Amino acid sequence: MRRLLVLLASLLLLGLVAFWYVTRPDPLPPRAMAGLTGDPQHGKLVFWAGGCASCHAAKGATGADLLKLGGGRALVTAFGTFHVPNISPDPKDGIGDWTLQDFGNALLRGLRPDGAHLYPAFPYTSYNKMTRQDVADLWAYLRTLPAIAKPDKPHDLRFPFNIRRLVGGYDFLYASKAWVVTGELTPQEMRGRYLAEAVTHCGQCHTPRNMLGAMETSRWLAGAPNPDGQGRIPNITPAHLKWSTTDIEAFLTTGLTPDYDSAGGQMADVVQNLAHLPKSDIAAIAAYLKKVPPVK
Description:
The chain is mainly alpha-helical. The chain has helices at residues 2-22, 40-50, 52-56, 100-109, 124-127, 132-142, 167-174, 187-199, 203-206, 245-254, 265-274, 279-289; strands at 74-77, 80-83, 156-157, 224-225, 232-233.
């Protein structure tokens, strides 16, 4: 009996050590962002490509109000309600007292400045493929925007999803930095992959998810339930999206389909954001979509 108790205690201890190791925060090396000088003009393009305003500005915001990133939107999910945070340069309510290293840890590792895990409702599982220079450029641009004094609301999540430490296990399983579409790609297609899989994070809406909310990359861009609860986000793999690259480029810049329908819902915001990008980037995304494996 004593040997059995010792064995059980040892197994429990090993389990706790394994849990602690798997769920631990994994920050960037201390000087990972050192020596980088952000270019706010390029950061502005990263800002629009990343769709920052679509979540962090007030719902229905237009014009200059899109640059007021006080957060506050409620994202209702099966795990509970997430409240979008203030990412304006306000030093008290926003991220004005963060460093570039803090910002890099948020985008590339999904961590807050205090080392706690961010929830993957923030798409760091896509942003983690961004270059550090793009992160620095985005940071430089965000610091030029208006400071908004608006405190964050706490998330309202069901147990056990309200335990942040568990997000480390999610990251261990699903926060891959590997590209989904591989093989021989042209420089244009690689640029499109970088934009679509990392910065514009197309998969976050267009890819179905498993029970833990992780993207099922085996069905990459094959369509998914609308997170707003109405209808579905469409399949945009070549199995369903039969448009030419010219048609795709036109849709991404004007919101008009080849049969003169128009983008609605969240996609209208995406089109509004992508309109700020150079034509070469839009063409790169279109070329990439043609290389995505077809999924019926």
